[in-house]
Amino acid sequence: MARTPVWKSIAISLTDDIAQGRYQTGDKLPPEVQLSGRFGVNRHTVRRALSDMADQGLVHARRGAGVFVAAQPTDYPIGKRVRFHQNLARLGRIPAKRILTLETRAAGQREAEALRLEAGAAVHVYDGLSLADGQPIALFQSVFPAAPLPGLLSALEETHSVTAALKHCGIQDFTRVETRITAKLATATQALHLKISEGSPILRTTGINATPGGDPIEFGRTWFAGDRVTLTVSDQDNPETDGAA
């Protein structure tokens, strides 16, 4: 088994310090010499760890002042109603979404099964990037049955919001009926979008949303930057909605 580099272990430890609230957003981290003593390494190794954390958007350096915490990992609730904008706004974060692609194509096997479609049926696909306070926290792909939602892509292009776009198409409500969470390592493309290092830990959620009548309306996959998000699972039914995860 490959041994974790010392600098990576230091980065993980400091990231955990931030996640546990030992250092808040805007706080200055201890100087390199102090961190060198804490971990029993030279300053070059500490500098490498801090550089990796900066690449992930967790800290930033101010010339002549030191290294400061840029952001803390975000608690992200997953329950019956998973709404991106509502989740982040409740935490005082500024949510945003960036469209990567919008297209209509044939459904893959897993997509067809999840949406109860015939093999090769047409689906609308929304690939995008979710941000909190301008920092990328997740890549996502949402897949919808095309036949009952002819105007969905234009509504998504206008609103960027799954909830708003579905309402435009006559779907007033939907709830999560299944969620699966899997730990993964970021591919080169995922790392580029999320501004993390290739091979960094990410959390993939796979979910199915359905109408009140039980018809699957969305099959979604989301890849969260592992150091920036803490997924919390709840069975509480929150009626407030403002954009799907």
Describe the structure.
- The chain is built from eight helices and ten strands.
- It has helices spanning 6-19, 32-39, 43-55, 84-90, 109-115, 152-159, 162-168, 188-194; strands spanning 59-62, 66-69, 74-78, 95-106, 122-132, 135-145, 175-185, 201-210, 216-225, 229-233.
Note the topology.
Blueprint (H helix, E strand, L loop, with lengths): L5 H14 L12 H8 L3 H13 L3 E4 L3 E4 L4 E5 L5 H7 L4 E12 L2 H7 L6 E11 L2 E11 L6 H8 L2 H7 L6 E11 L2 H7 L6 E10 L5 E10 L3 E5 L12
Parallel strand pairs: 3-10
Antiparallel strand pairs: 1-2, 4-5, 5-6, 6-9, 7-8, 8-9
Helix pairs in contact: 1-3, 2-3, 6-7
Please describe the structure with a list of short key phrases separated by commas or semicolons:
245 residues; alpha+beta; six-stranded antiparallel beta sheet; two-stranded antiparallel ribbon; 8 helices; 10 strands; 29% helix; elongated; disordered C terminus
Helix/strand order: HHHEEEHEHEEHHEHEEE
Q: Determine the oligomeric state from the structure.
A: single chain
- Overall outline: elongated
**Helical content, roughly?**
25-40%
Strand content: 25-35%
Q: Helix tally?
A: 8
Distance N to C terminus = 35 Å
| Average pLDDT score | 85
Ranges where pLDDT stays below 50 over 5 or more residues in a row are 238-244
Strand order of the largest sheet: 4-5-6-9-8-7
**Which sheet architecture does the biggest sheet show?**
6 strands, antiparallel
Q: What is the CA-atom radius of gyration, in angstroms?
A: 20 Å
Supply the helix-strand structural class.
Answer: alpha+beta
The tally of beta strands, per DSSP, is: 10
